[in-house]
Design a protein that fits this description.
four-stranded antiparallel sheet, alpha/beta, 4 helices, six-stranded parallel beta barrel, disordered N terminus, 19% helix
């Protein structure tokens, strides 16, 4: 407690009254010192007057005051007034009537067989169906101190329902409805309803390349050399053979993704990718990349994670990279194929960091060169031999030199932000559920470790810039 307000008065030979107020001004305390001899006790009205003199005008506890006047207590602080705390406003909330985090990871039985039949891949909507409801923010209630001062309150923050293709907002903005029958695609807080188109058969010379504004279901294969571009989600019922897949949403390939030894296909998805097995191909997923078996000599990227399932699942040869997690029954191969496994891997941030550090190096070099040039010009200026055109050059160099500290500070701040982003992925890990073979190379950012001896179940993580290999113990969940 701090004595933000104190009133003391000696009422002749009667009790002395002290009033103190808490730092937050929400509580006032009254303390009575005993009167001399048989002096008359203070009345309730006199106690109230003392409080008013101290500025206490709100939240008086009448019953406490009355009891204190009737039975005065001395040398003890009594809570005599209580202010009201502000109630901050509640933020707007959005409730979705569908799952915004679809679980497309296939299940496996005790023999490691993967079930691709019951993924419920598409979430369907019908025209007029409510997709989202918004609860508006509240203003909150201001508080008041015992001095009668209003305590301002922070109102709740508003947010809007993300309206995407083929959806409509109600006039008050509190409900989102589907305009058409279709597949729900939720991405970056925006809800779309896209028509689901079907290719009954293969994507090949009979169909040509496919460019689909909605979601797409292909019942059979995507043949070598063809391209499929999809704005929504994509389901391929068969194989993908050396083809190019561009998908803004999620991709599932119920069989394999493979090609000839001299060509390479690619799947590039804005969401999750699920494939049964991959051989010699490229996959880039901004979500989780799930593979139901082997990934041989591939180039894999799963921003949120790479998970290999199945009793015989493995990553052998090639490269796999993720920000957070790579997990497979086996990593590497018995033949010792070089298998690069990279986590704490954020190519965009690393690229930005490299650019900032290059700029810092450049500005330091420029500063050094400018100072050298200015020294020569100042020498000419001192002997009165600096021509007008050189004088103008000197002014420009001085202006540049003045701007260097601000530019350097800005770049250093950017570097700190980028380094902070990289620290966010410091808990990344690489897990071999059964074994890891020599030839595997585990990378954590720029730090790496080559595996020289075969190991059993192993979890790799980083601690104090050192890669640690410990026994992997699966959770009991």
């Amino acid at each position: 407690m701090s004595e933000a307000a104190t009133a003391s008065q000696q009422l002749e030979t009667r009790a002395e009254v002290s009033v103190t107020v808490s730092e937050d001004k929400l509580s006032a305390f009254l303390l009575l010192s005993p009167p001399e001899d048989d002096a008359q006790e203070l009345t309730e009205t006199e106690l109230i007057d003392e409080l008013k003199k101290a500025g206490i005008v709100f939240g008086l506890l009448d019953e406490v005051l009355h009891d204190l006047a009737e039975n005065q207590v001395y040398d003890e602080k009594i809570l005599i007034a209580r202010g009201t705390s502000p109630e901050p406003g509640k933020d707007a909330e959005i409730e979705y009537t569908f799952s915004t985090e679809q679980k497309r990871t296939p299940t496996q039985d005790s023999d490691g067989r993967i079930d691709y039949k019951n993924l419920e891949y598409f979430q369907n909507a019908t025209a007029g169906q409510i997709l989202a409801r918004k609860t508006p923010p509240t203003e909150g209630s201001p508080g008041k101190t015992v001095f009668g001062e209003e305590i301002p309150v922070q109102p709740g923050r508003d947010k809007q329902i993300g309206k995407g293709a083929n959806t409509s907002l109600s006039e008050d903005g509190l409900e989102l409805k589907a305009d058409i029958d279709g597949s729900i695609v939720f991405s970056n807080g925006v809800t779309n309803v896209l028509a689901v188109q079907t290719v009954s058969g293969n994507v090949d010379a009979s169909t040509g390349n496919i460019d689909c504004n909605g979601s797409l279901k292909i019942t059979k294969d995507v043949k070598s050399g063809f391209r499929v571009k999809v704005k929504g989600d994509l389901e391929v019922g068969g194989h993908v053979e050396d083809a190019e897949i561009e998908c803004d949403g999620n991709v599932i390939v119920k069989k394999g993704f493979f090609g000839s030894s001299d060509t390479s296909g690619i799947i590039n998805a804005g969401g999750d990718v699920t494939v049964k097995w991959i051989d010699g191909q490229d996959v880039h997923s901004e979500g989780i990349l799930t593979i139901g078996g082997e990934a041989i000599n591939c180039r894999l990227y799963g921003r949120k994670g790479i998970i290999i399932q199945g009793a015989k699942g493995k990553i052998a040869g090639g490269e796999a990279a993720s920000r957070y997690l790579i997990q497979a029954p086996e990593l590497g191969s018995e033949g010792g194929a070089a298998t690069h496994l990279k986590v704490a891997f954020d190519p965009e941030t690393l690229q930005q960091l490299k650019h900032v550090e290059t700029e810092l190096e450049r500005i330091n070099e420029d500063e050094h060169r400018v100072k050298e040039g200015m020294t020569e010009l100042y020498k000419l200026q001192l002997i009165g031999n600096l021509p007008p055109e050189k004088e103008a050059v000197l002014r420009k160099l001085e202006d540049f030199l003045k701007s260097v500290p601000e530019k350097r500070t800005e770049l250093e701040q950017k570097r700190e932000v980028l380094l902070g982003k990289l620290k966010e992925i410091a808990n990344a890990e690489i897990i071999a559920e059964q074994r890891v073979y020599p030839g595997a190379i585990v990378h954590f950012g720029v730090i790496y470790k080559e595996i020289v001896d075969e190991r059993g179940p192993t979890r790799f993580y980083i601690e104090n810039d050192i890669i640690i290999a410990s026994e992997y113990l699966p959770s009991s969940d």
